[in-house]
């Protein structure tokens, strides 16, 4: 009995029931993930920029509305009166010495309808037209109400040496009241509303250009206010 040779399997033949082995799939897709990440970052940046611009515009609009509503104004200064109660020039071993006392009244006006003004310590210095120091004084800080006019009185004292060339002019000017005196006021103030208070800004107010005689007759020296940086 002859043995039959098994039939050869044709190319591409596979047994039924045997699972097909597939090559493992890679779980890493660098290009696709990087693209998604870049897209997400761009969206975040765009939304953040839009939010920031909106916030800035909102703050500007709120500030403009508040400014128009409150309409803040600087205080108005007037030098009301100046009176020397003591003025002596004596000789000392070191040279001529000025011993003076004066009372200066400065009118402060708050033109704001809704904002009070909060003043810090206020200093005043008197000088003649040549810059000779005639005394200084100060008052503590205070609060000025809305639409208010306050007269602040300064007590001035001076006990210092004078240059010889200034003695005659100062003495004669005081006697005949032709001495031109200027007052420099230095202070800091802020504005307040209810329980809110702004930052303090420094100002210097210069009032002068008139003689003692003119001020005695009711003339008011012009005052210029300078905001200090």
TrEMBL record:
InterPro entries: NDR1-like (IPR044839). It is found in: Membrane. Its main location: membrane. Signal peptide: none annotated. One of its GO terms (cellular component) is membrane. The chain crosses the membrane at residues 40-70. Residues 1-26 are annotated as: Disordered. It comes from the Eukaryota. One of its GO terms (biological process) is defense response to other organism. Keywords: Membrane, Transmembrane, Transmembrane helix. PANTHER family: LATE EMBRYOGENESIS ABUNDANT (LEA) HYDROXYPROLINE-RICH GLYCOPROTEIN FAMILY. This is Late embryogenesis abundant protein LEA-2 subgroup domain-containing protein.
């Amino acid at each position: 009995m002859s043995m039959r040779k098994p039939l050869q399997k044709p190319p591409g033949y596979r047994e039924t029931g045997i699972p097909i082995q597939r090559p493992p799939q890679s779980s890493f897709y660098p290009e696709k993930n990087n693209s998604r990440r870049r897209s997400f970052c761009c969206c975040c940046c765009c939304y953040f920029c839009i939010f920031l611009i909106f916030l800035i515009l909102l703050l500007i609009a709120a500030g403009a509305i508040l400014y128009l509503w409150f309409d803040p104004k600087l205080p108005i200064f007037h030098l009301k009166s100046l009176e020397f109660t003591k003025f002596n020039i004596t000789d000392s071993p070191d040279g001529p010495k000025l011993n003076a006392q004066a009372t200066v009244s400065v009118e402060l006006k708050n033109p704001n309808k809704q904002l009070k003004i909060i003043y810090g310590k206020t200093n005043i210095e008197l000088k003649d037209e040549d810059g000779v120091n005639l005394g200084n004084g100060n008052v503590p800080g205070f609060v000025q109400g809305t639409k208010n006019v306050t007269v602040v009185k300064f007590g001035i004292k001076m006990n210092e040496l004078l240059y010889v060339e200034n003695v005659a002019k100062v003495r004669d000017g005081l006697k005949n009241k032709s001495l031109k005196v200027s007052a420099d006021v230095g202070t800091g103030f802020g504005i307040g509303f209810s329980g809110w208070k702004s930052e303090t800004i420094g100002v210097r107010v210069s009032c002068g250009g008139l003689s003692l005689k003119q001020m005695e007759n009711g003339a008011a020296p012009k005052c210029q206010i300078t905001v200090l940086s």
